Amino acid sequence: MVGAKVPRTLRGGHAAFDVANINTAGKVSMAALAAAGAVGFGAAHAQSQLPPVNIDAPSTRPKPPSTQTAEQKRVRAAVRRAAKRQQQAAPAAPVPGTNAEGARAPDANPYANPDAPYKADRLASPRFTEPLANQPRTVTVLTKELLQDKGATTLKEIGRSTAGVTLGTGEGGNAFGDRFFIRGFDARNDVFIDGVRDPAISIRENFFTEQVEILRGPASSFAGRGTAGGAINIVTKQATDRNFYNAETEFGTDKTKRVTVDVNQVLTPTFAIRANGMFQDGEVAGRKYVFDDRWGGLLAAKWTPTDYLKVTANYVHSDISGMADFGVPYNAALRLPVTSINVPRDTFYGFVNRDFQKAKQDFGTLNIEYEFSPIFSIANKTRVAHSVLDYIGTLPSNPGVNGPDTVRLASQSRYQTTDIYANVTDATFKFNTGPVKHALVVGAEFSQEKVWRDSYAGLTAELSGLQVNNNTVVSLFNPPNLLPFNTRPTLAGLPTSIDVDTKAVYAIETANYRDMIILNLGARFDDYTIDSTSRTNAGVTNSGNHSGMFNWNAGLVIKPIPIASIYGAYATSSNPLGAELDANNATYGGLPASQFAALGPEENRAAEIGTKWELFNKRLLVTGALFQTDKSNARETQGNNVIAGAAYTVRGIDLEAEGKITDKWSLYGGYVLMESRVTQSIDPAQVGAKLANIAHQSFNVLTKYKFTDPWEVGVQATYASEIYGGTFGAVNGNVLPSHWRFDAFTEYKVTKNITAKVAVNNIFDTVYYDAFYRSNTPFVFIAPGRSAYFTLRAKF
Questions:
Q1: Model confidence over 162-213: pLDDT tens digits?
Q2: How many CA atoms lie within 13 A of 213 on its CB side?
């Protein structure tokens, strides 16, 4: 009786019911409907007697069978997920750092604050489950926008302009590539790419970089061996869910021509790709004959077939070639580099027809993430990498020893390949115990590192006319740079091969009580095995070492108010024997002869207390910390012997700020002041000495102000104190002078999509130096001179 008539009072008026829309499984009593609607009736109707009427509920019609295929259903679900994600990502109104429609910019750094791009909100690794402001440690993060404003196209330039980081040279037994000291400790083998160690000692470009993270203090619980002073993690660009098309061209007074292209395309609702390319042809400001050419590419993909599964992959190739420039000689009598006395800064001591430097890197990464439930997820990362470092260079030293206005020259060469295979698995558990939120990361890591190196022979064949007592001696002011070389250098054929196998397990727990008290605990065990085979004219030498290393960290954060925290932390790390894979011998951190292979790891202990504040509507993160790191069982050489037992300590203060003060004023800066002291040594003269080769005081600040919507101006100041020479402690009296460097840039948004930029680096053409060779007859790396750049950037 679906069509039965009902009284008009039930059909008319705003309080009436539409019986046709009633959907019940059984029969509905009309008396019940009348009682429910009594409020809308008059008194007479309310008192009327109505006979009971029963109405059959409409029968449910079966749905017709779906004609969609399983693939069509999957795509439809993916479209809905993408629309939901895009809707959630769009704020109600445009804010700084977003596009005109109010959504986050398609190419925005996913780890940075969109309203303050200099400020990173979190780290890329899943092992850091809390925001950066809640981490009980100092971490310096250089976001993509900050790297762009600094004009830092290489990792070396980042080290040159970051407080607390000192550049190093290759030394006699190490490769000449990227070398950094963090908080006074050598970190050349503590560089990571997306959380996987990259021990290649290469020359690294930044075109594929999303951000650079510098962890301060021992980090073995997170990163494994080494990391006494910290670790550097390069975060690569990944494919995203939004289309964008970016291009940039740059022209410089140092004859630099640079082009980059960055394109992301969503091909289907579940699949996106990204392509990034770079080409550069340039010279080096203030250096004669030195050039720096580069090219490279990145290809990345992202596949999200369901809400729970994400697969990302990328492949990067970079190719850098140039003229090897090992700097200028140091006058030990006057305690100054010769270019700070009377030699022109552009004087080059290499041989144009012989010397060169090449660095190639290829690495591919596959990352699979699956969320089984809101409380359990797992991620697996596989990395395969190959790199080549190939160079012949000229080392200048001993000015004036063989007569006034002379300098000695020596050759340095290397052909080194590094192959890496690594697999890392992180399982994350999130659960609550009452008001405490837990995030437990349990993981395992397996890696193989293979290094093969040789050197070039016959490098002095054409230099016989320049020999004085078996030394090549040339004019200090007019070295014979264009001397013809008729013999092509060849490899000596006496290579050294090194194999490293690492198996590690770790657990990192973070317990958060109402975002007021946060406890962080971590532990890791590394099983480390290294084997080396060296070939010499005397025969073949085999050596090896095995170390089992347990390290841990503990940190406590207390947040009395939401924008501020006080923290304390303690951490350990270990440097196993031979961990500096580029080194020729134990003097430089390499693997010694087999009779010394029983030496245990160097042990590092560090304590840090600090505070973090998120100011100006949480757009500026300010950090202040006191730290101390102690190294024990450090290795020294005595004659041909390697002895463990040295010790030294570094303590200091670390101040940092990054983000925005106002909508128009951005700021990034840091100041690090350190004291160091050798506390134990086989050489009594070393005890009490400062550590050599590091700047004990350093400062950097970059500030940018937007005067109008299209126009902004930025300036940068960098300072580094004296660097003392020496092999361990600073006892030989050599010292590099302190320096200031100033940079500036201005940007103007010509149209919605086009931006023009003019930048000047080293405005006052200051003659300063990057690093000190540690011997008693050193040379120094001289930094670039003044240069200006014009950049045109297009974004669509």
A1: 999 998 876 555 668 788 999 999 898 899 999 999 987 788 999 999 999 9
A2: 25
Residues recorded for the chain? 796
Question: DSSP letters of 700-741?
Answer: EEEEEEESSSSEEEEEEEEEE--EE-SSSBS-S--EEPPEEE
Do the beta carbons of residue 520 and residue 555 sit within 8 Å? yes
Fold classification of 236-401+415-480+492-795 (topology level): Maltoporin; Chain A (2.40.170)
- Residue 35 is given by DSSP the state H
Task: Give me the pLDDT at residue 22, please.
Answer: 36
Residue type, 179: R
Nearest to 451 by CA among 175, 185, 235: 175
Q: Output the CA torsion sign for 347, 330, 180, 694.
A: negative
Q: Residue 339: what pLDDT?
A: 96
The alpha-helical segments, DSSP class H, found in 612-755 are none
In contact, 674 and 696? CB cutoff 8 Å: yes
**Average pLDDT across the chain, whole number:** 87
The alpha carbon of 614 is separated from its chain's Cα centroid by a whole number of angstroms, namely: 22
Average pLDDT over residues 72-97: 51
Cα separation of 376 and 48, whole Å? 64
Reduced to 3 DSSP states, what percent helix, strand and coil does the chain have, rounded to the nearest 5? 10, 55, 40
Q: What is the pTM for the complete model shown?
A: 0.86
Both tokens of residue 595? 């009779």
3-state secondary structure of 462: helix
Sheet with 180-182, side-by-side order of all strands: 165-167, 180-182, 185-186
Give the residue among 529, 413, 499 at the shortest CA–CA distance from 199: 499
